[in-house]
Design brief:
The protein is α+β, with helices and mostly antiparallel strands. It has a two-stranded antiparallel ribbon with strand order 1-2. The two termini are 17 Å apart.
């Protein structure tokens, strides 16, 4: 997963370090998001805290971090991970 995102935050594109590293459920667990690798991305702790339990697409499109390229990469990761590791 880290290689798929070039060791960068899926949301911000910032390099991940031991000090700022976190994982996030793209579709939050509190809103029925599944605990599966296809729904998890590496991110900075700051981005994870800002997203919290918000709807992913609504939050991301309106966030200061938004990038169409990163959105496509997140969606491609979800599809790839489901193909490789089906439920």
């Amino acid at each position: 997963m880290l290689r798929a995102f070039d060791y960068k935050c899926a949301y911000t594109g910032e390099p991940l370090t031991p000090e700022n590293f976190s994982f996030d459920h793209v579709q939050t667990r509190s809103k029925n998001g599944v605990h599966h690798i296809s729904n998890i991305v590496p991110c900075t702790q700051e981005a994870n805290n800002r997203k919290h339990a918000k709807d992913f697409q609504e939050w991301y499109i309106n966030s200061k971090y938004y990038s169409l390229d990163r959105l496509i990469k997140i969606m491609a990761w979800q599809e790839f991970a489901l193909d490789v590791w089906p439920y």
